Amino acid sequence: MRWNHTLLPVAEVEALSKRAGVSRVLAELLLRAGLGDGDAAAAFLQPALAGLNDPFLLHNLEAAATRLRQAIANREQVAVLGDYDVDGVSSTALLVMVLRRFGLNPRFVVPRRSEDGYGLSRSAIDRALEAGRPDLFIALDCGTNSHAEAAYLRGQGIDVMVIDHHRSTEKALDQCLLINPHVHANTTGSDGAWRNLCTVGLVFKLCHGLLKQLRVENHPVAFRIKLRDHLDLVAMGTIADLVPLRGENRILARHGLRILQETQRPGLRALMDVAGVKPAQGITPTDISFRIGPRINASGRLADAALSVELLLSDDEKFCRETAQQLDTFNRERQEIERVITEQAERSIEQQFSALAGVVLFAENWHPGVVGVVAGRVTRKYNRPCVVLGNEGDMAKGSGRSVDGINLVEVLGTCCEHLTSWGGHPMAVGVALPKVHLATFRAGFAEAVRVHAGGEIAEARLEIAVWLTPEQVTERLMEELETLHPFGQGNPEPIFGVCGVVLRSPTEVFKEQHFRFQIEDGRGRRLHGVAWKLAHRRPPPGVPLDLAVELKWNHFNHRKLLQLGLIDWRKSVPGQQPWAPAAGN
């Protein structure tokens, strides 16, 4: 792994430090985030809900809010179909909750992976129509490219609304209300701060617009609803869907995490309990990405994600406890399935496809509901785009993940002739194709990645944000770093370089995969660290080392301790210090 650090002009760091009233370390981090202006830095450090844009800037949102207002006034029948991931589940729960407050009783359906496939499929629509023909059908987190399905609904006299954030591979939907800032990106005059919203963020904006319209009419319920209380759902979908945590997403996620920490929803409290999340210690994006989110996703991957929606909507404590336990069981099953598939995928790459720039993997016994996580793991390990497909009859279906600099939407656009469906984001896509075309697609994908990369894919880089001395690693610095939270896509957690440290004692391996270590600063103060899954590569004691670390709080025995999270290490080069640490703190 190549370490990379770009020196910033000392004068700029000093100037921002004084203007913003922050340390030089924090000033350097802000400059790297493109926040050199004092006002921009202040807005980033203190994101306020007042900074959210007018919801009616979104194309079609005012018309969609008006249509919902009509449904409320006429007590219409509404059906909601949401995708089965965290974004889709939280979007469905949020919209259903708000519409229920206005006296509607919308029924909701979540596609079943094994029966319905992905998105707005005919089988999922037919299940939604079993209870009768609704007046309004709303698709969430899917449907942007579903022309035939939308026409099918319209042919039955049903109004259709689609709220989605996936990129379009076809012309825009007609004969229905589509809210998708990527499709209509060139038809608005906004600065685009909201274009990276995921679906639950768009649903939040729609609910905001609806309340604005109804408050003008002095609707009594509209004044009693506090949308801020629903930001826990918005934060979950936003963080889990890996959209950039900048602009409006940062505002929604930052405030939503605080609401989630104090949530009164029995379902979320039960889910956090089985996941081992302790709200009193604060809720972080990691808790959503690795504890809460996977349990919500597990029901959609192995069973029916409608169970997760029901959990979020329910006030029944007993039901919530039992359902959370059920989701936890599904998650354990998913983890074991993923572990086996990951091992097989890694062997396949090393034995057959190690020379390819982009890899397509498939096996008859792989579950299509879990291959997305496997794709992410092998992509990170081998630093190349990977598509991992599972078996579904005559079809191979699954997901692809990418690396920095490779846009999967653009790559697939040049090798999609045999794909029956595909779409997603530059870093993550869904793919389906007949199994008979696997060999052709594998060759086309590898060549498309090679061309897109301009040759070989660049070596994985480790960006060192700031070089520190051990003396600078303090609780005061940790408090400053907390103003940068939440970390995630578009706002990565900074990796710090610590130069020339010496381990005075050997590292301590635990659970065969990990190790603990200690370093000292010049005053003899000890700093404790942990390295996850690096026991195969332990640094030697007694020699100068450069460490690449993240700074964490470790909660243990009701105490909060500063901890170094080791990402990588290398031996220091005597007499050579290529990157000077930021002076002072």
Structure explained in plain terms:
The chain contains 20 helices and 19 strands. The protein is an alpha/beta fold. The strands form four sheets. The chain has a seven-stranded mixed β-sheet with strand order 13-14-18-19-17-16-15. A five-stranded parallel β-sheet has the order 3-2-4-5-6, sandwiched between helices. Helix 5 (86-101) packs across helix 15. The longest helix is centred in the middle third of the chain and has 37 residues, at 317-353. The protein is globular and about 75 Å long. The two termini are 29 Å apart.
Features:
585 residues, alpha/beta, inorganic pyrophosphatase (n-terminal core), OB fold (Dihydrolipoamide Acetyltransferase, E2P), 3 domains, seven-stranded mixed beta sheet, five-stranded parallel beta sheet
**Into which percent range does the helicity of residues fall?**
40-55%
- Count all strands and give the number: 19
The CATH architecture assignment of the largest domain turns out to be: Alpha-Beta Complex
N→C terminal distance:
29 Å
Unreliably modeled segments: 187-191
Number of domain modules: 3
Q: At the third CATH level, what is the topology name of the largest domain?
A: inorganic pyrophosphatase (n-terminal core)
What can be said about the biggest beta sheet?
7 strands, mixed
Per DSSP, the total helix count is 20
**What coarse outline follows from CA principal-axis ratios?**
globular
> What is the arithmetic mean of pLDDT?
92
Given helix and strand content, the structural type is alpha/beta
- DSSP strand content: 15-25%
CATH class of the largest domain: Alpha Beta
Neighbour order of strands in the largest sheet: 13-14-18-19-17-16-15
- Any idea what the radius of gyration is? 25 Å
